[in-house]
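Researcher: Good morning. I'm working through a list of sequences from a screen, and I'd like to move beyond sequence-only analysis. For each chain I'm collecting a predicted structure so we can compare shapes side by side. This is the next one on the list. No need for commentary yet; just the structure.
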Amino acid sequence: MDIRTFQSADEVAQEAANFIADRIRENIAKKDFFTMAISGGRTPWEMIKELAKQDLPWEKVFLFQVDERIAPDGHPDRNLTQLFKSIENTKLPTRLNIFPMHVVAEDLDEACQEYAETIKRVTETGKLDLVHLGIGTDGHTASLIPGDEVLAVQDRDVALTSNPYQGRYRMTLTYPLINQAEKILWIITGEEKAEMLSRLLQQDPTIPAGSIGQEQTTILTEESAAVAFN
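Model: Good morning. Structure tokens for this chain:
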């Protein structure tokens, strides 16, 4: 595991953008396209803004969602809504290759299956080049929530939570898909995340984040969150 610590969340966002840009260039040089799944969060949206400043072949970049709340299109609770806001007034092309989770579908189980099939079709191998993750103060990551039945899903790459979390049911990538990604990038900022970062590093099985693979992992964090291992 590669752990890099910075003085502020802004620096983390900038370094995350640089890290992703490097992975994009490497993969496009190797196979002519790049696939990535993005999580939500304040620092990640700043990361996207910084990434948008990079001179990259965006037509060869394919963006997926790590998770999404079951809410109407355009709702502020939606990660997709915040993603679109983060790229407003940037130099990104108007037609990005973004694949939203279809959380307004009548049959959400079918929508999960279709999303998994889309990932397999676009990636060609079923493996994403990069999955970006964050961690909650309860140890959740993606929408893999403590105590939820979705934690036990091993036969599907995309699934629904069994209970509402913070008022919303969720659609999420599951452990099997996340753990086979070529690279996993954690962005962890804020003093309130220090305990969970420590438990993540220990691969604590009692928190959802502890079951994410670590061999292909890079963690970018700020000093206030890294006190546990400084």
